[in-house]
Amino acid sequence: MSAARRRVIGLALGSGSARGWAHLGVIRALEEAGIRPDLVCGTSIGALVGAACAAGELRRLEQWALGLGLRDLVSLMDFRFGNGLLKGDRLMEVLRGHFQDRPIEELPMPFGAVATSLRTGAEVWLREGSTLEAVRASIALPGLFTPVRREGAILVDGGLVNPVPVSLARAMGAEVVIAVDLGADALGRLQRPPPALQVPAGEVGEWLRKLQEKLGSLVAGDNPEEARMPSLLDVLSASINIMQVRISRSRLAGDPPDLLIAPRLAHFGLLDFHRAAEAIEEGRRAVERVASLLPALRHPGA
To answer: Residue 73, Cα to own-chain centre: how many angstroms?
Structure first.
């Protein structure tokens, strides 16, 4: 008898800002369990991690994320108060300095990113051209990052239309889809007491304090006794969470993945990127919670 045909496994990585570092833990835990995707796609932060996975640079991205501190986070913030709070050029410079930018078509693994057309509201699948430019378009969270012009279109974060891109994974040829939903427990975050923020001493600490006075919390460290009303960024973050959770529930109900992994990181703030170790560990735990379902997904003979 001939050997069983190898099924194509696709990984769909969802949006979720700083919670997205959990994708790193999820992918590592899946690999350790013998599950290796044949293709990967992502939305927003899922696009960034997915691109690193497709390029074979996941470990390098993980090392960079684990090394991020509050000072590094502040250095990436190029404020412009125009059509986005952050211009995003500094982030792209850092990414280009750490990771080789190759055309998506030349990556070792098939990759796709999701963005949204600001003019038409259409879902845009980015499957060719510069990998980093596709990631930049996918992470252009409205109000935070400036939009991206691409081939005559103005693109913003793909989480507006497809927060967990199962449909793209299937369109790319996946027969088995593993999806990672970062917003499963995001609703109600404003009602939960956040952990204390460790503000560094010196100029960076003073800068963060002044910024919090003007805009409110950039990270999850507000003092709940002092926060009588949610800050500007808390309102923005909570609104985006509500929208994306509702969209995700609807789309996942109509097109469910074969396996859904849901890290629990509702206590993370919008820009808590300096807490990578915590997010990565929760990604691993999320895989452990569905460990009994993994054997059925393994390639024959794995």
So the answer is: 16
Active site residues: 44, 157
pLDDT of 1 > 60? The answer is no
* Mean pLDDT calculated for residue range 232-236: 70
Q: What does the mean pLDDT of the chain come to?
A: 82
Q: Are 220 and 195 in contact (CB under 8 A)?
A: yes
- What's the Cα-to-Cα distance from 274 to each of 72, 199, 243, rounded to whole Å? 8, 12, 25
Q: What is the pLDDT of residues 56-78, one digit of tens each?
A: 999 999 999 999 887 766 666 65
CA distance 149 to 151: 7
C-alpha dist (Å) from residue 171 to 41, 191, 255: 10, 38, 12
**DSSP β-ladder status, 9-13 and 176-180:** parallel
Window from 33-42, 102-111, 195-204 with minimum mean pLDDT: 195-204
| Three-state SS annotation for the chain | CCCCCCCCEEEEECCCHHHHHHHHHHHHHHHHCCCCCCEEEEECHHHHHHHHHHHCCHHHHHHHHHCCCHHHHHHCCCECCCCCCECCHHHHHHHHHHCCCCEHHHCCCCEEEEEEECCCCCEEEECCCEHHHHHHHHCCCCCCECCEEECCEEEEEHHHCCCCCHHHHHHCCCCEEEEECCCCCCCCHHHCCCCCCCCCCCHHHHHHHHHHHHHCCCCCCCCCCCCCCCCHHHHHHHHHHHHHHHHHHHHHHHCCCCEEECCCCCCCCCCCHHHHHHHHHHHHHHHHHCHHHCHHHCCCCC
Does pLDDT of 3 surpass 90?
no
Distance CA 139, CA 148 (A): 10
